[in-house]
Design goal:
The structure holds 2 protein chains of 2 kinds. By secondary structure, chain A is α/β, with parallel strands linked by helices. Chain A contains 15 helices and 11 strands. Chain A has a domain of 228 residues: Amidase signature (AS) enzymes. Chain A is 35% helix and 12% strand. By secondary structure, chain B is mainly α. Chain B is 38% helix and 4% strand. Chain B starts with a helix and ends in a 6-residue tail after the last strand. Classes of the chains: A alpha/beta, B mainly alpha.
Chain lengths: 512, 95
């Protein structure tokens, strides 16, 4: 087997036994990326110099017969909304096209300290707003399973990079499915940790009460190794929480109770939700997911149909009120003054220390008119820098959030959504009194075609219908591949109680 | 249906300069999405406490000590500003 096809543990063994070096492995992958990424477009920036430097250091340590941590020499990719010192960080946006990160995110510090090798920054929907990576200001990423289709989003670049075997694992971020959905579409493993399990320091903020960084990997075991490395309380993120890291061993699968929420399989054709373009779950997806759940039953687990009221459409509506509100606050910092694209001086181009791939602007982006007009006042700097720097989806969500928070509408929209959020959390707590974990489809359909949903924002939002409730409740969830429909991957979502990542990882990893 | 005036007002609050065409399009899109939110009216939230964070984290304060960044670090941050003068970030007049 090629070293690039191995799991993290096997690569680790291979490095210690000197079957190959970290430098060889890094070069193999960098070559593969150079040859094949033009088809997939998973990457925005390559960090080749950094990777080779890091790899050489690891080889030195190995040659001195010193012990190396499990992630030493393991090449990975990073979603371009996570900061790496001295490397360009665009957040998929024109407004940060030339921004060079001044510091490392905490998760990057942790991975660097283990000696993991950084290959590059991956493409995403602008500011992580989207479900297909088509909202990237630069170009869309293709799904390696079918290049006429989307890889999902917003961590589409990361999921595609892992699926195309460009790296051993990748980091993504999940606010409402942005790790899980692309993992399902691309046929890889994606873990969204409990809110607070992984520090958000160094993650470009989108929705502060929902964002979480997590691993996208080829196997569940690999996802677990990465999660353990990046999680932990961080004094730089006051919402991060100390995790107990209690290992979970399934002594007897007959003791396992799995809940299957009926609402995730409902919404038949003709229901009122159809008027919003919700087609409900694809019957082929339902078959594959139910078959995967059946395997657990055949192994002895108890399957129970449960009810999770408000966990689909109501959760999505709640999410699309809370998230844009937080977004409107978090994106106020992009003002054309402190950093980023500025109408006053749009030509700021500090030299990127680590090689930047040339970025072309995506054809889908609506052209913003008003360019070239006078910038007279401070208000003009704000209005024009932001109008030109942000793409259509970002502007849409900022507008939505500003509206939901504005005087006269705050009670009916934002406050109402926060109250519904409380009920959603309570409903999960009730259900978890009866079952250990929940299993659902990750998405209602497999990967859709490029261009299919970009015109209708609501149809795009609906692809995350099984993601929202979990994010609102801050619960951990993993998506694992459970089959294919005409070569298109299908994902199974396993949801656990807060801080029970080890439980859902153990259940996801059962050899059935 | 959200009015054009409301859209213009929101755009000004959000500091987004929208053209006439964009205002029209935003009006249509926002109206559609706001329509979807009507399903939340079905849920009785009488006496329900709102949640702002899903996991209870106690807020804590750090020591009131000054941490001085090394000058190279500060330099990196100043370099990012589109307009600067010496070690100041430059903006248009506020008043």
């Amino acid at each position: 087997m090629e070293p690039t096809d191995l799991t993290i543990a096997k690569i680790h063994q291979g490095l210690i036994k000197k079957e190959f070096s970290a430098l060889e492995l890094a070069k193999l992958l960098l070559d593969r990326i150079k040859k094949s990424d033009k088809e997939i477009n998973a990457f925005l920036t390559f960090t080749e110099d950094l990777a080779l430097l890091q790899a050489k250091k690891i080889d030195e340590i190995i040659s001195k017969k010193k012990e190396i941590p499990i992630l030493a020499g393991i090449p990975f990719a990073v979603k371009d909304n996570i900061l790496i010192e001295n490397v360009r960080c665009t957040a998929g946006s024109k407004i940060l096209e030339n921004y060079i990160a001044p510091y490392d995110a905490t998760c990057i510090k942790k991975l660097k300290s283990q000696g993991a090798i950084i290959l590059g920054k991956t493409n995403l929907d602008e500011f992580a707003m989207g479900s297909s990576t088509e909202h990237s200001a630069f170009f869309p990423t293709k799904n390696p399973a079918d290049i006429s289709r989307v890889p999902g989003g917003s961590s589409g670049g990361s999921a595609a990079a892992v699926a195309a075997n460009f790296c051993s694992f990748a980091l993504g971020s999940d606010t409402c499915g942005s790790i899980r959905q692309p993992a399902a579409f691309c046929g890889v493993v994606g873990l969204k940790p409990t809110y607070g399990a992984v520090s958000r320091y160094g993650l470009v903020a989108m929705a502060s009460s929902l964002d979480q960084i997590g691993p996208i990997a080829k196997t569940v075991e690999d996802a677990k190794i990465v999660f353990e490395a990046i999680s932990g309380k961080d004094p730089l993120d006051s919402t991060s929480i100390k995790t107990s890291n209690i290992q979970y061993l399934i002594s007897n699968i007959k003791d396992l109770k799995i809940g299957v929420p009926k609402e995730y399989f409902a919404c038949p054709v003709g229901s009122r939700m159809d008027s919003y373009g919700a087609k409900g779950i694809d019957p082929e997806v339902e078959k594959k997911v139910r078959a995967a759940i059946k395997k657990y039953e055949e192994a002895g687990a108890k399957i129970e149909e449960v009810s999770l009221p408000f966990s689909t459409h109501h959760s999505l509506a709640t999410y699309y009120l809370i998230m844009p509100s937080e977004v409107s606050a978090n994106l106020a910092r992009y003002d054309g003054i402190k950093y980023g694209y500025s109408k006053v001086d749009p030509g700021v181009k500090p030299s990127a220390r680590y090689g930047a791939k040339s970025l072309k602007h995506a054809p889908y982006r609506n052209k913003v008119s008003g360019a070239g007009s006078e910038v007279g006042s401070l208000m003009d700097v704000y209005l024009k820098s932001r109008a030109e720097g942000f793409g259509t989806e970002v502007r849409r969500r900022i507008m939505l959030g500003t509206y939901a928070l504005s005087a006269g509408y705050y009670d009916a929209y934002y406050l109402k959504a926060q109250k519904v959020r409380t009920l959603i959390i309570k409903n999960f707590q009730k259900v978890f009194e009866k079952v250990d974990v929940l299993m659902t489809p990750t998405t209602p359909s497999p990967a859709f075609k490029l261009g299919e949903r970009i015109i209708d924002p609501l149809s795009m939002y609906l692809s995350d219908i099984y993601m929202a409730a979990v994010s609102l409740a801050g619960l951990p969830a993993i998506s694992i591949p459970c089959g294919e429909i005409q070569r298109l991957p299908v994902g199974l979502q396993i949801i656990g109680k807060q801080f029970e990542e080890n439980k859902i990882l153990a259940i996801a990893d059962l050899p059935l | 249906m959200i009015t054009k005036e409301e859209v213009k007002h929101i755009a000004k609050l959000a500091r987004l300069g929208l053209t006439e065409k964009e205002i029209e399009r935003t009006q249509k899109e926002l109206s559609l999405i706001l329509d979807y939110f009507k399903i939340l009216k079905e849920i009785d939230t009488e006496n329900i406490v709102p949640t702002s964070h899903p996991v209870s984290a106690k807020s804590y304060l750090r020591e009131d000590k000054i941490f001085k960044l090394p000058p190279e670090e500060t330099e990196k941050i100043i370099q990012m500003a589109p307009q600067k003068e010496k070690r100041y970030v430059r903006t248009k007049a506020i008043l």
